[in-house]
Design brief:
The complex is a heterodimer.
Chain A (H helix, E strand, L loop, with lengths): L7 H23 L3 H4 L5 H23 L8 H14 E2 L7 E4 L9 E4 L1 H23 L4 H20 L25 H7 L14 H22 L2 H11 L1 H6 L4 H27 L9 H14 L4 H30 L9 H15 L8 H7 L16
Parallel strand pairs in A: 2-3
Antiparallel strand pairs in A: 1-3
Helix pairs in contact in A: 1-8, 3-8, 3-11, 3-12, 3-13, 4-5, 4-6, 4-11, 5-11, 8-11, 9-11, 12-13
Chain B lengths: L9 E10 L2 E11 L4 E5 L6 H8 L7 E6 L2 E2 L5 H7 L1 E4 L11 H8 L6 H14 L1 H5 L10 H13 L5 E5 L7 H16 L3 E6 L2 H7 L2 E6 L2 E7 H5 L2 H6 L5
Parallel strand pairs in B: 3-8, 3-9, 6-7, 7-8
Antiparallel strand pairs in B: 1-2, 1-4, 4-5, 9-10
Helix pairs in contact in B: 3-6
Classes of the chains: A mainly alpha, B alpha/beta.
């Protein structure tokens, strides 16, 4: 049953969570004691955590809704990152200076589009890449699809690594990656009109604006997820996940429906990739390892495959552990016992153990979707009506 | 031959289907006239389900022609075939077991946009199968075998098909339920839906059908009126269990 009637308690809880998140930068710098803040991420780390949560939610369209195991989701992260590099840096300085709402001074060489346009372009490009990858591969099922997506997750970074000389054209800057990528911001024109909107978030004293941008994207992704889940398309995804043949017999166009889940997932993966790159100011092929795909997949599994709230929680938790929790735990451990262990070195060991434990103890995730719970806790069939002797 | 002068609803001519190198249908020809119940009988592996899957567009024939209301549907996608008016309750029922009964029925109407008509068809299915109405919010996977079959038939009916194809609807059901299912098949037909029925239970199938085809290892070996088939020596020996 879809939770059509959310209880009052759930609504209240949701409102409190959202307000806390929205006010987090302010709480962090003004009200939290140092004993607490050494465990909590600063605002720019919190930005990265939220950006990765968007990726988890994006992958949930593919893995959670349509039931397609994608082990190469990092390809879309890469696509988004490079679109950001192309459209907001000096990579194409030869093209002259195209500053269209960008967050740089006029006449800066290269292409510098408004970062908001860059985000949209990155998402759209990534979705297009999703279609291009999806059309030939989504005919495969189950494990075979997983293997091929794994392949694409490796092909894209390799392409980027070797894309510095495509018939003499330097598209990707090769193994060095791209640097000097513009920050997010509203650009000078808007800033001059409305002074409260900063021209470039990098010029702001802290990274609150980045954080809020990521939070806004999380909200957009959640709302899209919820709307699509209860739509005709969402039903079709679930039908395909349940039984592909039966779905086809009902008239569900398999390829179109699966490709759409892939493209929508890629859309948000690309947006998150671009956003992270616009904050970091640089990107390189080394950032696109298999670990990223697995990391994002873990968010979906940990949170509860198919459940938007579960995946949001799983994403925030896992990204927190990765970007802050482990360091904090390591520091506390070292200062308590006077040791000098670098716990973050063992991150993947710890994730591995955590995933195994989770699969054993709570395979449905932190907040399972109602459907998944039913799948994992099989109800006994009431009456498997007796065998009937058919005439030979 | 019952073939009247009118145009057939569905016509297969010399259809060949392969699973890889395996020649599953070796030139099947059959016709279904509007308003009739036509049954395909035959042993396991004779090609009955393959024939239905081919008509549904889930398998592609290598040669031969498939026509529905005169339109060539050999190249049509499965969703187009549903839209044209052919729905199937597949073998083994293939419900979406983690969806509710109501959600399953709604999936049957996936290709339709006429909301109010869907609601009235839903009511009709509930009238036909009151058990489904009682269990509309229950997960389909928790239904009994008979209820699952009802749900599968109901789901196919919600596509509002002109041709309803049923694949072994009596499979695995208790004798009581088999009676009930065949009653319903007759009812649906009397309300105007043409039915193509695949059955192993040849005796019951030939009782309700107007016309029958006997399939053996991918070939139609007999085609006649149901009453004629029932008295045919070979059919009696091989399929009706009479010596």
């Amino acid at each position: 049953m879809p939770p059509a009637t959310r209880t009052r308690l759930e609504r209240a809880l949701l409102a409190v969570c959202f307000c806390t998140l929205a006010l987090y930068p302010w709480l962090y710098s003004n009200y939290l004691s140092t004993t607490l803040t050494q465990w909590l991420p600063d605002t720019s780390t919190a930005f990265v955590i939220l950006a990765f949560t968007v990726m988890g939610l994006g992958l949930n369209f593919v893995v959670g809704y349509a039931g397609l195991l994608d082990l190469g989701y990092v390809a879309f992260f890469a696509a988004g990152a490079y679109v950001a590099g192309w459209l907001a840096s000096e990579q194409f300085a030869n093209a002259g200076s195209v500053v269209f709402g960008g967050t740089v001074l006029p006449k800066t060489p290269g292409i510098h589009l408004s970062p908001w346009l860059v985000l949209l372009a990155a998402a759209l490009f990534s979705a297009l890449l999703g279609v291009v990858i999806g059309v030939p591969t989504l005919r495969l099922r189950g494990d075979y699809l997983a293997i091929v997506t794994l392949g694409f997750g490796e092909i894209i970074p390799q392409f980027v690594r070797n894309g510095d000389n495509l018939g003499g054209f330097n598209l990707t800057n090769g193994a060095f990656g791209m640097n000097g990528i513009d920050g997010l911001g509203f650009g000078n024109t808007v800033h001059h009109a409305i002074h409260t909107l900063p021209s470039n978030f990098l010029n702001e004293l802290d990274s609150r604006w980045y954080y809020w941008t990521a939070l806004a994207l999380v909200v957009v992704t959640i709302v899209t997820s919820l709307l699509l889940r209860d739509s005709r398309l969402g039903r079709a995804w679930i039908a395909i996940r349940e039984d592909e043949d039966a779905a086809a017999a009902m008239g569900v166009p398999l390829m179109r429906t699966k490709t759409l889940s892939y493209a929508i997932g890629a859309f948000f993966g690309g947006a998150a990739g671009a956003m992270i790159t616009l904050q970091a100011g640089a990107t390189s092929p080394d950032a696109f390892s298999l670990q990223v795909s697995i990391f994002v997949l873990c968010m979906v599994i940990l949170g509860g495959i198919g459940n938007v709230w579960g995946v949001t929680l799983g994403g925030i938790l896992l990204a927190y552990v990765n970007y802050k929790g482990l360091f904090a735990a390591g520091n506390t451990f070292n200062s308590t016992f006077g040791t000098n262990v670098d716990i973050s070195q063992y991150a993947y060991l710890i994730y591995g153990v955590a995933i195994v434990l989770f699969m054993l103890v709570r395979p449905e995730g932190l907040i399972p979707s109602a459907r998944r719970r039913a799948e994992l806790v099989e109800e006994p069939e009431e009456e498997n009506v007796g065998a009937e002797a058919s005439p030979a | 031959m019952s073939a009247n002068g009118g145009d057939p609803l569905l016509e297969l001519e010399d259809v060949h289907v392969f699973y890889g190198a395996i020649h599953a249908l070796k030139g099947v020809s059959l016709r279904v006239d509007p308003g009739q119940i036509v049954t395909l009988i035959g042993a396991n592996g004779a090609g009955k389900s393959t024939t239905l899957r081919t008509i549904s567009g889930l398998l592609r024939p290598r040669n031969g022609s498939l026509r529905f209301e005169g339109k060539d549907i050999v190249r049509a996608s499965s969703q187009r075939i549903v839209r044209l008016g052919i729905a199937q309750a597949p073998e083994g029922r293939q419900l979406f077991s983690r969806m509710t009964v109501l959600e399953n029925l709604e999936m049957g109407a996936f290709q339709r946009r006429d909301r109010s008509e869907i609601t009235s068809d839903l009511e009709r299915v509930y009238e036909l199968f009151p058990r489904l109405a009682e269990r509309r919010t229950q997960k389909a996977g928790t239904l009994s075998g008979g209820e699952q079959q009802m749900c599968a038939i109901g789901r196919a009916l919600l596509a509002r098909p002109r041709l309803l194809m049923l694949d072994e609807p009596s499979m695995g059901l208790s004798p009581n339920l088999v009676d009930r299912i065949f009653e319903v098949i007759s009812d649906i037909n009397q309300q105007g839906t043409t039915i193509l029925l695949v059955e192993q239970n040849a005796a019951r199938a030939l009782e309700v059908a107007h016309r029958g085809y006997v399939l053996e290892t991918g070939r139609v070996t007999l085609a006649d009126d149901a009453t004629a088939l029932r008295s045919n020596e070979r059919v009696r020996a091989s399929y009706l269990g009479e010596a």
